[in-house]
Design brief:
With 172 residues, the chain is of the alpha/beta class. 46% of the residues lie in helices and 12% in strands. It has one domain: Rossmann fold (3-Layer(aba) Sandwich).
Length: 172
């Protein structure tokens, strides 16, 4: 049972709130919610040529940003290789993986970070993983085969697959 003190405060607060011009919806600050799905762009960065790491991500942005929000880990710039920045890189990347609805993975070669992101997203979070790889299926790591939902031969194939299966269409 509530005390009279609490009832008084609530009543007084509500009566003030009802007459307040700040109560109108136009003045309330509410988070903007996007109905577009989020895609995390996973792929080798460390020990990869900078331009190669950027090029496929830029192509994905060009082809998918009209319908999706893309989370690119390269948008953050960590130049120093200090211990703290390594922890930050991993934490920011894992947060992006958590925020994403699905992952688009460049599996052009073995990469510890990429493998960790794929495992975490698929195993721990149940995310859908679309990968593209020039590696013949029989030569792919069984771990990547197991935890990638779909592996296609090229980025363009992966983009077509994502556009066909993940754009929300409204039927009139």
């Amino acid at each position: 049972m509530r005390s009279n003190c609490c009832r008084w405060w609530t009543s007084a607060h509500l009566s003030w709130s009802r007459s307040s011009p700040l109560r109108t919806r136009s003045h309330m600050s509410q988070p903007v919610v996007s109905s577009r799905k989020k895609i995390y762009l996973s792929g080798p960065i460390m020990d990869e040529h900078l331009q190669a790491a950027r090029t496929w991500r830029e192509r994905a942005q060009e082809r998918l940003s009209d319908a999706f929000v893309l989370l690119d880990p390269m948008r953050r710039d960590f130049q120093d290789r200090e211990f703290d920045s390594a922890n930050e890189i991993v934490e920011f990347d894992l947060q992006d993986v958590r925020d994403a609805d699905l992952l688009l993975v460049n599996y052009n070669r073995a990469s510890i970070g990429t493998s960790m992101e794929v495992f975490y997203a698929a195993h721990d979070l149940g995310k859908f993983i679309v990968a593209f790889s020039p590696i013949p299926f029989k030569e792919c790591s069984p771990w990547m085969v197991r935890f990638c939902t779909k592996i296609l031969p090229a980025l363009d194939d992966a983009i077509v697959y994502i556009r066909e299966h993940f754009i929300q269409r409204h039927i009139a």
